[in-house]
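Predict the 3D structure for this chain.
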Amino acid sequence: MTDGKRQFTDTLPEYIVVEGPIGVGKTSLAMRLAREFSADTLFEQPKDNPFLEKFYQSREKYALATQLHFLFQRAKQMKTLMQRDLFQSACVGDFLLEKDRLFARLNLDDDELSLYEQIYENLSPELPRPNLVIYLQAPVPVLTKRIKRRGIDAELNIDDDYLQALCAAYTSFFHTYKASPLLVVNAEHINYVDKDEDYQMLLEHILKIKSGRHFFNPLVDS
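Done. Predicted structure below.
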């Protein structure tokens, strides 16, 4: 059994973020890391966005309202993070505020994006830099299967074309990402929720990273 407090020889980075497209499993990994290391959490709250389900039914009509709600919510959460006592436990999150722009550029038209960018520049706080970012990748058919399996009503209308565009946007974003140490994980064939051996294999990589860009492909590394 691996959950519970780790020994002090195993130290989670002070602030770690798990990122990736819808359905890839970022919150599940973040929750397991936080639980094992008794870390604080900073998770997205999609259920609190009253526009999200409408957005997946009519993206063009509800994109701006959905995006602005997420921006206000995420900016508020980041301010809370900045006010934490640095000597408290580690913190694990499942979003970067910077990725909010990724969704905005994907979903908003030119005029809406111009308005969004003005609000972003005036609203976004000085961002704390994660000590490690874990970027999870998986093909669209895998994402679709996982989305259907978890059965969140608001997500069941997501189509493959949107997921493909979202994956491409994430790939482009992290291709040039240098703000923090980065671990890129092929999450297609790894089950870190139900298989302790998969989780431990990934955790070993996480705890070793101090700087730079790294890649973890379980089919190659296992």
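The chain has a mean pLDDT of 88.
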